[in-house]
Amino acid sequence: MGGYEYDFSVISQNMDIFIEGALKTLEISAIALLLAIPLGIIIGMGRISRNRFIRILSSAYVEVMRGVPLLVLLIWIFFVLGQFLKLGSYWASIIGLAVFTAAFIAEIVRSGIQGVPRGQMEAARSSGMTYWQAMRLIVLPQAFRRVLPPLASQFIMLIKDSSLISVIGATELTLNAKNLVATSMRSIEVWTFIGFVYFAMTFTLSMIIRAIEQKLLARENS
Description:
- This is Nickel transporter.
- Belongs to the binding-protein-dependent transport system permease family. HisMQ subfamily.
- The protein has a single domain, classed as Orthogonal Bundle (MetI-like fold).
- Helix content is 82%, strand content 0%.
- The chain has 9 helices and no strands.
- It has helices at 9-13, 15-47, 52-67, 70-85, 89-114, 118-126, 131-161, 173-184, 187-221.
- The radius of gyration is 21 Å and the shape is flat.
- The protein starts with 8 loop residues before the first helix and ends with a helix.
- The model has no long low-confidence stretch (mean pLDDT 87).
């Protein structure tokens, strides 16, 4: 790096830009997760449905979403689907992140439901409950406790994945960083700080998830 002089004053001088970008990243990620969870639950339940058509359709969705790179999906939604639905970069980003994340949530939900002992469903059915009553009142509440930590971990992955939405012009932390690098020519300083910001957000969430897991484990053992 001969001749390069580091100047981290660009960070303190533009702190408002970083804060705004971090908050927008968390906002987009949170909304995407709120949309992905119900979609993922529906698809996850479809994966174990007794209806063969629903099971195949749900499985196809999961395999397609897991097989297509998120960046390609975001570009397609923004430039193709967005032209028909008049989506801006903000909602194209949210929809792209949501439908992508839903596939992984579906697998989390599927494994959570299948992790509940089959005897729970059989006992509920023998007591007169319908399949959906047993699923809603007996199986899903138990599965929810199992999948809560993995769902929270998925939120961390979503925050990191959201850095890709800068490609379609969505205003968030990474795009703000790109714009600042273009005007200040301080790429090393800016991107180093951006790395620390992402780490701070994800590490904080990791500590929260760990606390939740310990509390759930203590409750199960009590």
